[in-house]
Every structure is written in C-alpha cells, then in structure tokens.
Amino acid sequence: MAIHANSPGADVKKDRPAQTVNHNSFAPLAFIVVITLLVMVGFQTLQINNERKILKNTKIGQEDSFQESKKLRAQLDSIASQTALLASQNNPNAKIIIEALKKRKITINPKGQTSN
C-alpha cells in the first residue's frame, strides 16, 4: 500500500520548512542577575539615605547639649584659672586645691582659655 501526499499517514514535515530553535540560556540568567543587582543597589541606596537622616537628626539633637558643655567647660576653666591665680598669691586653700588637682593629673590653663 502506497502512502499518498494527501493521505492522513503522509509525512507532514515535507510541507513545512525546518525551524531551528536557538535557545540562548545566557540571556535569562543575565537578565536575572541585572535585575537582582538593580534591586540590591536600590535597597542599599535607601538604607544609606535612611541612616544619613538618622545621623543628621542625632547630631541636631546633640547640639544643645554640646553648646551647654562648652559653656560649662568655659566656666570651669575660669574658676580653675582664678584658683591658680589665688594659689600664686599664696592663698593656702587655693594651694590645697591646686595640689589635689595635680595629684589627679588635672592641668589648669592659667589664662582661663579653653582648648578645643
């Protein structure tokens, strides 16, 4: 029994051109890697910006305390320099205070200037 071209058992591939399937397995992988990197960089950028805002707010919150500590330091330096002046004028109580400060390795700036 011969099979004709129009019969149901005929080879259908003869009528269609051969299709070549070229699957590039690198393209989907590269796409996934690029998307992952973009998401990671975006996330890191958001995290850094949030941390920057937190640090800025923390610095602003500490500014008042810092200014107060500078004022207190200036007052203490003034008191210490006046005490040193009294000790140099042979005041016995001032000499005791200066000696106690020296034992604790606390230096006194005689001019009352603060060191920043």
Notable features of this structure?
116 residues, 65% helix, rod-shaped, mainly alpha
Briefly say what this structure is.
The chain is mainly α.
Helix and strand topology:
Layout: H1 26-88, H2 92-103
**Total count of strands:** 0
| Arithmetic mean pLDDT | 83
Query: Count of DSSP helices?
Result: 2
Instruction: Based on Cα principal axes, name the global outline.
Output: rod-shaped
Strand content of the residues, in percent?
A: under 5%
In this structure, how is the largest beta sheet organized?
none
Structural class: mainly alpha
H-E string: HH
Helix residue percentage: 55-70%
Low-confidence stretches: none
Radius of gyration: 43 Å
**For the terminal residues, how far apart are their CA atoms?**
109 Å
Could you walk me through the main structural features you see in this protein, from its secondary elements to its overall organization?
With 116 residues, the chain is an all-alpha fold. Helix 1 packs antiparallel against helix 2. The chain is built from two helices and no strands. 65% of the residues lie in helices and 0% in strands. It has a domain at 31-103.
